[in-house]
Amino acid sequence: MKTSSAAITPATVQTLRERLAADGVHSLMAQFTDVNGVARGKLVPLNQLELLMTEGVGFAGPSIWGTGLPRTGPRAEYYGRGQIESARALPWMPGVARVVCDGFVAGEPFDACPRQILKRQLARLAERGWSLRTGIEPEFFLLRRTAGGFEPADPHDRLDKPSYDLKSLPRQQDFLHQLADGLTRCGLDVFQIDHEDAHGQYELNFHHAEALTSADHLMLFKMAAHTLAEQHGMVFSMMPKPFANQPGSGMHFHVSLWRAAAAGTIGLDTRCVFDDASQDLSLLGRQFIAGVLHHADALCAIAAPTVNSYKRLTVGESITGTTWAPSYVAHGPNNRTALVRTLKGRFEWRVPDASANPYLATAAMVAAGLDGIDRRLDLGPACTDDLFVLSLAQIVERGIAVLPQSLSSALDALERDDVICAALGKTLSSEFIRLKRAEWTEYTRHVSPWEMARYAAAF
Ligand code: GLU
Ligand code: MG
Hints:
Helix content: 25-40%
Number of strands: 19
CATH class of the largest domain: Alpha Beta
Structural class: alpha+beta
Shape: globular
Radius of gyration: 22 Å
Largest sheet: 10 strands, mixed
Distance between the termini: 67 Å
Bound molecules: glutamic acid, magnesium ion
């Protein structure tokens, strides 16, 4: 049976078990991420640590979204195998340590496990001597349930332009501090928290890291925020666009590529592959971004994967005057109105929204970037215009494309894109498309209050 992380010996397991026990841990949360970017798993007693690290703990495969596994036979069992370096006691769940798991089926890495999918793409980078760093920026809402649905949890959060609102922020100080403190104690480097552009919307930033670790961090952030919000009587929401007239929640990725340090010299070699002394971005950086733009429509399905995502990706007015929605397939230096904002030695990919699976979004973006490098795609001129003030006709005149405006169109693009589908693998890409088509069909068949109001008495 193949091992999946740093060599597991009885001695390493024993050392970890003692360390966790000293932290008061009695149970392990064996956690993996499903196709929808939702944390799943089970609790196992600490004395099961060795089994978790070697064979893994079992789950009924078809009970997990996106696996496509059968109900019977050896492939019916999905094993979550714990990654030893990820074990952390959870301050918001005393006695429990989270262990990130990789998916295994029949003793082999499972091809449709989102974390394994990302590892495959990172291995392609490693073959070229590169490693990827991402900084993932989650925006989110704090809501409360009402008789008819949801509203911002803080009834006083009502400014016309709520960005950086320092009147509302202190009212959520308890929650925000517990969240930042808990994540910091788990090893994340939290460096800022702000009130975002919508009522009840916030953003918490932690430092960029190697891409797999970054995605693990993002999942930990979501798990912490859900639990703590519930403890405060609120609902933590990563829905992309909860309120039609307010900005939605993005989950922008800051992306940079680094020449991997030679074995034994970790941290010593810090050459950024995207940096260039004479200009902001190297040729490789420009080709990578050209790939991300070239595959923008297919990437959109993965990075903006819900029906609701496309209500964020429109461009228009909101209470703050702009939604900051990155709908235009363009790039420009510090240009937040384009899909890619370029900065020195890195770029910000602004398409992903808060509902994206961070492993799949990163994997698909890497595949697009590598395609750009392999085909030496030309990035084309930078856009310095404020695209939000231009009319659609002016945008078209400049040769700038607009992202798909519905989940259905994005799925069409994904289905046509062999590069992105190959990166996701046959199982995951077909399961993703099947599930998301079903989501779209269900949405189009429901009758909304808007339709009733408009048509019920109209004819
Ligand atoms: N909320 C905006 C979005 O949906 C982004 C605002 C920002 O740039 O921070 O992408
Ligand atoms: Mg933001």
